[in-house]
Design a protein that fits this description.
Elements: H1 2-51, E1 60-74, E2 80-93, E3 98-101, E4 104-110, E5 117-124, E6 127-129, E7 133-144, H2 154-160, E8 162-177, E9 181-196, E10 201-207
Antiparallel strand pairs: 1-2, 2-7, 3-6, 3-8, 4-5, 4-8, 8-9, 9-10
Length: 208
């Protein structure tokens, strides 16, 4: 009887040990699954963060609209024009950090950007475009035909009532993310437009 009782207790102890061992194994498996799930979640969060918040794009610098404040254009020999414009320009920042830009100049040309003749410059003061927002500013510029040669097509354009102009500029500054990351960024603007000399309206503004 004593021998049987001893064997019974031994079996029960071994069974309890096996149950305890199995419970511990299941607990370790659960912890491993939780740790793996947390690691996957962290990886996804970091990946999304890198593709959205930390992805730095160049801001955009554009002319939104232009109004004519004063205009004089004649077809005398030589033909000439004198135009005062008020332009609304914008710095669009799609990043998650603000963009501090330096002052710059917008150059207006007759005859095409890069190959045309300069007819006036507009000064843009330094400023800051907040994160994921657009900074709008107004600049005034006076244009004249003093530097345009006499053999140009200016007279025929004035007679037609439509004067084609272009403007270009480069805006430079620093983009700051979370007060930790600072990166130099710049953006260029090239726009074309037509001044209606009869209605005194600047139309067909196209920027890239």
């Amino acid at each position: 009887m004593a021998e049987q009782s001893y064997q019974q207790r031994k079996i029960e102890m071994e069974s309890a040990a096996e149950v305890s061992k199995e419970l511990k194994r299941k607990k370790r498996m659960k912890l491993l699954v939780y740790a793996l799930a947390f690691a996957i979640f962290q990886t996804i969060v970091i990946l999304v963060f890198s593709l959205t918040v930390m992805r730095i794009k160049n801001p955009k610098f554009r002319v939104l609209s232009i109004t004519v404040e004063d205009l004089k254009a004649v077809t005398t020999n030589p033909p000439y024009f004198n135009i005062k414009l008020n332009a609304q320009v914008a710095v669009k920042n799609t990043n998650f950090g603000h963009f501090k830009f330096q002052n710059t100049t917008i150059s207006f040309d007759y005859g095409g950007a890069g190959v045309g003749v300069g007819v006036g410059d507009a000064f843009v003061d330094k400023g800051r475009s907040k994160a994921r927002s657009t900074k709008k500013m107004n600049v005034v510029v006076e244009l004249n035909s003093n530097n345009i040669p006499n053999n140009s097509s200016l007279q025929s354009e004035i007679e037609s009532g439509f004067l084609a102009l272009t403007c270009h500029s480069k805006l430079s500054g620093k983009l700051q993310l979370m007060k930790l990351i600072k990166k130099k960024k710049s953006t260029e603007m090239r726009c074309a437009m037509v001044v209606n000399l009869v209605t005194k309206v600047v139309q067909d503004i196209k920027c890239q």
